[in-house]
Amino acid sequence: MLRMKSYFITGGTTGLGWELAQSYLRQGARVAVCGRNLSKLTANAHDRYPHLKSYELSVTNKEAMAKAIEDFAKEGLDVVIANAGISHGSKSKWPDGDVSRSIIETNVLGVLNTFTPALEIFKEKGSGHIVAIASVAGFIGLPGASAYCASKGAVIQMCESYALDLPRWNIDVTTICPGFIDTPLTQKNDHSMPFLLSCEEGAKRIKKAIDKKKVLYVFPWQMALAIHVLRRLPRFLYRRFMKLPFADYSKC
Question: What is the longest distance spanned by two Cα atoms in the chain?
């Protein structure tokens, strides 16, 4: 009898993480989700999905993350999805040091805290798959989003290095860079969100990329094209362009 696949998803109690979790549960997989507040999990979730396991913790807690992943892995671990993340929400031009620090700790160190124990398990096992949910914002510096762009850029570059280093241990690496997806995180934004996708559609596309073990997936195509053009502009032209009223989305 084939063993069911096992997925561990951070930030999995709501939004995109929960949509992904349900997709895998419906196809018969074991799934663990973690979040800072399990009361956000859909009512009767464990009754509906007997193969669901949940952990209440913050990804910034290195020891708690390791303990949860190691506990879940006792019955198998195949894919770890680092989905937990936070953003600025309000795009104030003046940087807030405390907010920036919190974003970096969650979006960068949280990913590292997630991947580190998983990689040790995958190395011993001889196979595995790590997935990071980054953002198109990680390719350029956007106004009013300094820490968020920096955090997602760090994740993109870290995973690019992982994708070069880890295949020798039979470990796959996938980096997902979405544009705007309608989730509790983006619903806090006070600026325009072009090419916004529903949470269900976003999860569907991400799952497909993960299942195909894509190394890098940037979507939707309109946002991918816009970022492709912007990141290739000479930086002085980019700075001038982003100062134009129609380009400054922090005023929208």
Answer: 61
The Cα–Cα gap between 223 and 205 comes to 14
Q: Which residues have C-beta within 8 Å of that of residue 143, sequence separation ≥ 6?
A: 91, 93, 242, 248, 249, 250
Q: DSSP label at 67? A: H
Within a domain: 88: yes
Per-residue pLDDT tens digits for 108-161: 999 999 999 999 999 999 999 999 999 999 999 998 899 999 999 999 999 999
Q: Calculate the CA dihedral of residues 197, 203, 205, 207 and round it to 10 degrees.
A: 170
Question: pLDDT grade, residue 1 (50/70/90)?
Answer: very low
Q: Is residue 170 part of a domain?
A: yes
- 1 domain residue, yes or no: no
Of the pLDDT bands very low, low, confident and very high (cuts 50, 70, 90), residue 94 is confident
182-198 pLDDT per residue, tens: 876 665 655 566 677 88
Going by C-alpha positions, the residue among 128, 178, 127 that lies closest to residue 156 is 178
**Whole-angstrom distance, CA of residue 142 vs CA of residue 227:** 11
In tens, the pLDDT along 222-244 reads 999 999 999 999 999 999 988 87
Which CATH number is 137's domain given? Answer: 3.40.50.720
Q: Give the neighbor-by-neighbor strand order of the sheet with 79-82.
A: 52-56, 30-35, 6-10, 79-82, 128-133, 171-178, 216-219
Per-residue tokens: 38: 């399990």
Residue 252 has pLDDT above 50, yes or no: no
15: left (phi over 0), alpha (psi -120 to 50) or beta: left
Number of folded domains that form the chain: 1
Enzyme catalytic residues = 148
